[in-house]
Amino acid sequence: MGYVEQNLVEGETVAYRGHLHWIVLARPLILALLLVVPGGIVLYLAFSQSAPSDRNAMLTAGFFLLVIGGLFFVAGMVRRNSAEFAVTSKRIILKRGVLRRKTEEIFLQRVESVGVDQDVLGRMLNYGTITVRGIGGTLEPFSHVSNALEFRRQVQEQIAKSV
Question: Contact 154/136 with Cβ under 8 angstroms?
Answer without folding.
Answer: no
